[in-house]
Each structure stands twice: as structure tokens, then as C-alpha cells.
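Quick question, first post here. What does this chain look like in 3D?
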Amino acid sequence: MNDRLNHCRICLTGGPGGGKTTAADLFRREIGDKVVVVPEAATMLFSGGFPRVSEPDAAMAAQRAIFHVQRNLEELQAARFPGRVLLCDRGTIDGAAYWPGPEEDFFKAVGTSHQEQLDRYDAVIFFESAAAGGMEVVEGGNLVRNEGIEEARALDQSLRRLWAPHPRFVLVPHNRSFFKKITYGLASIEGIVATLADHNGKAR
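> Answer (accepted):
Ran it through. C-alpha cells below.
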């Protein structure tokens, strides 16, 4: 699907408290320099002083900024580490779920389309939020994430709807055991990486 610098680009996404950031870090540690993690743009911006806002026009400006930072972070890491698998902590489509208006308006506002952004990624692994099981969202020290259960559940559903059309969409469902969920998630990442490596090898 992607031929940019002959690397694979995998998006790890899902609602708040899904475990995707933990899974990305653990997988990177497991297989070392075969992968590089693209950090979440929203967390970088908000933790660096970018204001969190609720006014619609201001929220739109924030999501436009996050989109462009996310996209350029991916391209930066791809240029720095050609040949490595990119594990993207969230992707460029996520902003549509946070957009205070119709989702299609988000893509128009950033000059792209839903399909074009789906095509950026070779696979999507969706970590369902703990809120889907009625559990409090715990973000492991990420102080910029403060969604309650209902908001987290709604975001999870919106994000899943946006990403599900991808032909390599893998769901990591909620599990009351975080250890079991992360184990399943890591196995899913490993399987996708192996599949894509095999596919790219045959393509060459």
C-alpha cells in the first residue's frame, strides 16, 4: 500500500485509556531497532503549553495544528529511520473524532480526505478504551488526558467508526485484565509486522 522509503507504517489508535502507548513502548523494547515510535502529537503539544480549549473555533484551530504536527512527525521519523517499521501513536484521522462539527468538515479543513488518510497507513491496530467496559480511564501519568467514562466511550466509538474501513483493521478488545489485553495487543502488532514484512519481501 505504501512505498514511501520502503517502510511500513502502522497506526495504533483507540479511545482514551486503551493501552496503545504502553503497547508501542513495550514492542519497541522487544524488537529494538527494527521499529521506531512516532509519538502522539496532541500529547506533545498540550504538555508543552498548547492550550486545551472548548470553544468551537478554538478547538478547530487546535485540531488543525495537531493534524499537521502528527503528519510531519511521521514524515520526520520516516526520513530519519528508512527501512524501519513506524509505530504511530495515533494517526492523522483521529482529529476528526475530536472535531466540533461534522467529521467531513475536518478533512476539508486540513486539505485532504478520509480515504487519503486511511491510505497513509499499512495497518491499523485499535485498542478499545477501558471505558467500553465501564471502567475508569487511567492514562498512566498522561496528565493531558482527562476524559470521563462517557466522553471516553463516545470518542472510542467515533474513532472506531473512522478507522474500521481500513482493509487491515485489527481490534484489540477491552479486557478487565490489562496484562491480557496488552499481551493480545503485542501479539497483534507482531502478527501485522510479520505479515507486512512477508508481503513487502514478495513484492520486491
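The two ends are 13 Å apart (CA to CA).
Residues 1-6 have pLDDT under 50 and may be disordered.
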